[in-house]
Design goal:
The complex is a heterodimer of chains A (500) and B (102). Chain A is mainly alpha-helical and 500 residues long. Helices cover 79% and strands 0% of the residues of chain A. Chain B is 67% helix and 0% strand. Classes of the chains: A mainly alpha (500), B mainly alpha (102).
Chain lengths: 500, 102
Amino acid sequence: MNISPWSLVVLSTLVVFFAFTLIVGYVGAKRTKKGLHEFYVAGGTLSAITVMFTYMATYMEAWEFVGMPTVIVSEGFEWWVIEMIFYLSFVALFYLVGLRIYKLGKLHKYVTPTDMIVHRVGGFERLLRILIALMILYATIIYIGMIYIPAAGVLSAATGGEISYHTFLALYVIFIVIYISAGGMRAVAYADIMAGVTFIVAFLAMVYATYTFWGGFDKLAWTAYTSDIGSEIFQKTQPFQYFWTMLIFYGISWLFIPHLVVRFFAAKDYKGVIVGGMGSNAGFFLGAFVSPLLLGLSLAAYYGANLPEVEVVEGYVPMLFMELFGMGPLLVLLLLGLIAITRSTIDSMLLLVSSIVDVDLIERGIGIKVPERGRRLVSTLVIIGVAILSVIVALAPEAPMVIIGFELCWPAYSVIAWPTIIMIFWRRANKYGGFASYLAGFISLLLFTYVIWPEAPHNPFGVWEGTLPTLIAIATLIIVSLATPPPPEEFIKEYYGIKK
Amino acid sequence: MTHHNESSTPPDVDAIPASLMRWEYLLIAYLVFASFLVWYVSENLLVWEPEESIWGLPKPIAGALMIAITWIILNFLLFATYYVAITKRIKNTYVGTVVRKE
């Protein structure tokens, strides 16, 4: 097989980046002390600046940098507006919920999000750990698979399809497995800083190029709007209730997204939560608003209805970069940024899965005692298993990653997050209501999605896919809790840290 | 997971109230406002009207800008509010502890 020098450069970029992060991961692992709390949440000692970068790296992922610009031209501008709507509720309640999660994490030294859930529910621990672990696993496998799509699609498109999407997919998964097996949460956190810096450099280069190429933001906006694809993509197709349920259910559910929750546990003090939160939200303004908007408009303005042929639509972004910058160092830098943001999300997700299976399923759910050395082995095997299982989602994607996320992945997080957030504040919630809410939410989600209404939006009311299962979970929590005895007063005092 | 140990609890943890602070209920009012904003943008600005503009920009892009500006301003406002509120509560908690010890 003949591979052009440029394709080799793209391939080398991937290899060099992963080699470098492997070293960072190794150094991080050497500095990581033993013990679960240290391994998974860095002993709760990450400073505000580190936490800020880890938040940013967690969110400013391929979803924003590649997925959103792509969806603007492939599905319509409204899907990106929906993402902006999400921030309206997420940012508003970030500090309110984040500080309480931090407080409870510090009081009880939680390692996984499930620790917090089962502690608050206060009963049915083993069954609940298994149920929550399955729910998180379900969502995370889709999530990781969804991120694989742009990770491999971008690199393949950068080679003009010379190295196939599936080759890059295989390489990517292998590198991820090697890297994550060598480090812990602290290694991920340090690597996230590097990913964040790479992203900022790539972002600035893009802003500069966009302005010099189009001559200003307003000119770019009008060129995109009046292009031959404009009338198709700049019109609303979803009903108002879809937008509104995204604001309420989707936006708020992200406050208990598992890989964010472990960042709250990892914060050293409250400043880690609020300074980190403020900084990362400000970063989202660049990463989630400015960056996708400029890129999406550039795609519409440059290509119009004549979008390039690619294996997956996320390949539009590197194709545009190649057209604007040519094949050179700047494009390599941009690819580096794209690799960094996809990797930082995937490895933190895999680490979360590892902690959930290791702690929630094996040790505390099923109740098998595994020695420390064997535990690392089990974690590694779990990571490999999940990394490989997630490939199923990315093998032949039928929709852009953003649509897969909205339709399949985020609803699962919503049925976990909503009852949990309510239980953080509502002291009357008891173990019967708590357990029943997660069970009812997850079962209804699976039924609605795969059996009753298999076509999106998986309900006849035009609301967001996660809305009905979440409402069922909330109603179950309230009704069952009120119909059964309240939790013991001593438990409530101990849980919320209420002093006499 | 371990159980609560009072002596090892940092002061900032004690200062964060388990329940909502009174002013935090204002965020419910904000969500009502956000719902109105979502209605306004989705029903009035996500349209194809090349002859119309807001702030010199096409309507959908101006609508997205309205939403983004709202949440970024809110971010800084809430950061300052929480920073002041929690710092003040930490001081009060610390002073209270010292007074009790004396």
